[in-house]
Amino acid sequence: MKEFTEVPVDREPAPAAFLVTGIPGSGKSTVARALARRFALGAHIEVDVLQEFIVSGGRWPGPEPEPEPDRQLFLRARNAALLADSYTAAGVLPVIDDVVVLRPHLEFYRRTVRARPLHLVVLCPDPQVANRRNRERDKVLVEDWSFLDEALRDQLHGEGIWVDNADRDVEVTVDEILARSAVPTGSDPGPVRAVR
User: Fold this and answer.
1) Range of 61's domain?
2) Which CATH number do you get for residue 156?
3) Domain tally, the chain
4) pLDDT confidence tier of residue 140, bands split at 50, 70 and 90
5) Tell me: the pLDDT tens digits for 93-122?
6) Which site among 4, 5, 50, 170 is 20 to 30 Å from 108 CA-CA?
7) Using an 8 Å Cβ cutoff, are 103 and 21 in contact?
8) pTM (2 decimals)?
């Protein structure tokens, strides 16, 4: 048996990173996972999962500002950014999936994620479509979050790639994102480089 030795982790960095957002039910997780799969090396970073890592004292953000849930919202965003940068350095293209509807949250990501370019993708189906999707899925939400749509359209208007995916399947949505971002999907992950 060959001797096991440490292997360099980093290589030619990934050419970009994505932040996929939209209100609950907009299709973020499904589209983000499908987008990541289009790359030779791609990672889906589901920020809700990072929130669940807090097994004691975790507080999900609600409709009204509250200090501790809001602090944890930025903590999970910071952790997503750290993961994204680690994957990027290793040549794995990261796709972050988070509900980002307010400009301070977006600006936090832009400051914290070092990978460039960072492509913002806003999924914007009609809120009634998102609510219907929420009712039909296993991940049951107790709140009607459609009011976030107004905040999203007000605060992020003109930012990133907007896709109304109400009547589009996932693959067509991903095709549009790739065409509009012009990020090559590639097949060769590139040479491994030593870290110093």
Assistant:
1) 17-181
2) 3.40.50.300
3) 1
4) low
5) 999 999 999 999 999 999 999 999 999 999
6) 170
7) no
8) 0.90
